[in-house]
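Internal QA ticket QA-208
Title: Verify multi-chain structure generation after dependency bump
Assignee: T.L.

Test input:
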Amino acid sequence: MAPHRTTQTRTSIIHLRRRFQRLSFILPALIFVVVMMAFPVAYNGWLSFHEWTGSARRAPEYVGTDNYTELFTQSDRFFPAVKRTFLFTGVVVTAELVFGIGIALLLRDAFPGHTVVKTLILLPMVATPVAISMAWLLMLEPTIGVFNKILRDIGLTPQPWLGSQSQALWVLMAVDIWQWTPMMAMITLAGLLSLPEDPYEAALVDGASSLQSFFHITLPLLVPTLLTAVLLRSIEALKTFDIIYTMTRGGPGFSTETLNTLAYVRAFEYFRLGQAAALLVVFFAIVLGVSVIFIQMRRSVSMRQAL
Amino acid sequence: MTDLSQATTPRPHRPLSRQAVMSKRRAQMRRIMAESVRAVLLLVIIVIFLFPVIWMALAAFQTQIDIISPGWGFTPTLRNFDRVFSEYNFLRYMGNSFLVAAVSTALSLLLGLPGAYAIARFHYDWLGVVLLAARIVPGITFLVPWYILFSRAGLNGTYIALILSHMIVSMPFIVWVMVPFFEGLPLEVEESARIDGATMLGTFVRIALPLSVPAIMTATIMSFIFSWNNFMFSLVLSGDDTRTLPVAIFNFITYASIDWGGLMAAAVLITLPVLVITVFMQRYVVSGLTAGAIKG
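Actual output:
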C-alpha cells in the first residue's frame, strides 16, 4: 500500500509541476488580458449605470438605467447613428466584395508585372489612415481640390463633397471602399489559388463557358472564404473611426456621425462618461451580434459543403 | 481564360483545312482582345488605387500658391519638408511613433508567442476565444476605462499608456497569426527533444521558435504597422511630449488656414516607412493581412 501511495503522490507532483509549467506560458498574456481587457469591459458595464464627468472631486453617481433610457428614448442622435453605421457597413462591404472578386479574377493568372501590381494595390490599406485622409481632404477641397478642378475643366458643376450633408457620408464610403477593396481582393485571390483543378477540367469537358464555370464552380467553392472575409471586414467597418473623425468629425451637422464617433464625442469632448459607457455597451452588443450571425452562417455553409 | 489558351495550343502535325485556319485565327484574335481588356482594366485599377498617394506626394513638393492656383503646373520645392522638421517638431513625433511601435511590438511578442504556443500545444482553447473576442470588441470600449484609470494612476500622456494600449491590438493579432502556424509544426521534433531531456521552455525557444521565423516576421511587421498607424488610442492617451505622428498630423488641420504643402509633406513622411516595408516585405504583409481568412 505504502509504496503505491508514494508513486501516486510523485506522479501527481510531476503532473502538477507540468501543469504549472504550461500555465507559465500563458500567464503573462493572461494577466495582460485580465488587466487591460476584461477589467475595462467590466468597468465599462458598471460605469454605464452611473453619471460621471471624470472629475476627481465628484464620484460617479448611481443613476440606474437612466443612461440607457436616455439613449433609446430621448437622444435624437443615437438611432440616426445606428442607421448610418449599418448603411455605411452594408454599402462598403458589398462594394468591396464585388470589386474585390473582380480584381482577384484579373490577378489570378500570372502575367508580366504580376507581383508589382499585387504590391501596389496593397498601398491603400497599409498606408497610415490619417495621412490618407489628409490626401483625400486636399483632393476633395471644394475650391482647390483636384476633383472639382477636373469638373470645372470639363464644364461640369463643382460639388461640395464633404461640405454637403447629403454627400458627405457617401464620400466617406468611397474612401473606405478605396482603402479596403484590396483586402477583399487579396483574400479572394488566396482563396482562388487554393481551389481544386478537377471541377474545372470536368466543366471544360462538358463545354461550360467561363462565365458558367465562374457562377457554378468558382463562386460556390469560394463562399466559405468570402464569408470569412465579409465577417472580418464587417467588424472593422462597423468600427470605422479614423477616416470619419479626421475628415468630417461626424459633420456637417451630424450627417456622418456613426456609433463610434458618437461614443468618442460623448466621452472625450462632452465628458459624459456614463452616457458614453452605455452607448459602448450597446455598440459592443451590435458588433457581437453581427459577428455571431456571420460565424453561424459560415458554420452552416461549411457543414452543407461537407455533406 | 483557360479555355481560350487551351484552344490555341498547337496540335500534332495535321494539314489544316481553310476553316480550321480561320477559327484558329479567330480564337487568337479573341485571346488578344481578352488580354488587352485585362491590361486596360488593370491599368485603371492601379491608377485608382495609387492616385491619392501620388497626389499627396505631388502636393508635398508644391508651394501653397501652386496648390491653391487653378492651374495644373508647379515648380518643385523642398521647403515643405524643411518646414515640417524645423517648425513642426516632426523629428520628435517620429521618434515617439517609432519608440511606441517598437516597444509595443516587442512586448506583444514576448507575451503573445508563448501564449500562442500554449494555445496550440496545450489546448488552452478558451484563451484563444478570449483573444479573438479582443478583435471584436470596439477599441473605444477599452478607451473610456483606460482613460479614467490611466489618469488616476497619473499615466495619461506617458509612453507606458500608449504602449499598453497599442498592445491590445498587436498581442491578439500575434496570437491569431501564430496559433495556426504552431499547430502546423510537426510534433515529432519537439517530442524527441523532450525525450532527450529538453525542458518545455527549451523546446519552445530552441525548436519551435526557430522553425517559425516566417510567421514571426509576419506578426512583427504587421504589429509594427498597426501601432505606427494607430490613431484613436494615441489621440486620447498621448500628451504634448509623447504625441505620435498620426495625432501630430491631425493637429495640422486645426489651424485656421491649412498649410497644405506642409500637411502633405508630413503625410508623405509618415507613410514612407510603411510603404518601404510593404514593398520589400510584400509576402509577409500579404499573409498578415489575409491571416485567418484562408484556412478552411
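Spot checks passed. Residues 124 and 132 of chain A are 8 Å apart (CA to CA).
Status: verified.
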